[in-house]
Amino acid sequence: MSLIDVIIIIVLLLFLIAGFRLGFIRSIGALIGFIVGIFVATFYYDVLANLFLPLFLGNLKIAQIISFIFILVLASSLVGFIFHIIDRVFKIVAIVPFLKTFNNFIGGIFSLIEGVLILGIILYLFGSYFQQFLINSTIAPILIKMAGILIPFLPEGLKCINCFLT
């Protein structure tokens, strides 16, 4: 097992623990918020980029990337907030035996899925910078493949972020 695999496992364990602590409703809210955020950002990043264009001295690619990330975070946060409110209502019902444990267990699973998708996208976008570490990794290619379901929804500017950073 390579060092990068150990780091990935630690990060995924942190997602699992966080999800276990948050519970099912908030964890599913975070996962849905992340996916909804990507979809919303896919449709509206270009509009916002044109508004941001003067701030980035006419650099459309940078404006698109910043706009996409901004919309992703905003939409994800809004969905997360809605699920936070739903979770507050659920806590009243959670007096039923084993319901809290079930809520925490499923929350851990959904946060783990979110972690896999986020790490997979990060590895996809920045993998060329860490190729020497990723060559020996058995986990990184799996994460990249699993995140592949969301990659088509990323804007072209974000997909070729390596073009801007080199």
UniProtKB/TrEMBL annotation:
Transmembrane feature ranges: 6-24, 31-56, 62-85, 105-127, 133-154
InterPro entries: Colicin-V_CvpA
GO cellular component, one term: membrane
Compartmental location: Membrane
Keyword Transmembrane helix: yes
Keyword Cell membrane appears in the UniProt entry: no
Bilayer topology term: Multi-pass membrane protein
A GO biological-process term: toxin biosynthetic process
Residue stretches in coiled coil: none
Keywords carried by this UniProt record: Membrane, Transmembrane, Transmembrane helix
Pfam families: Colicin_V
Protein name per the record: Colicin V production protein
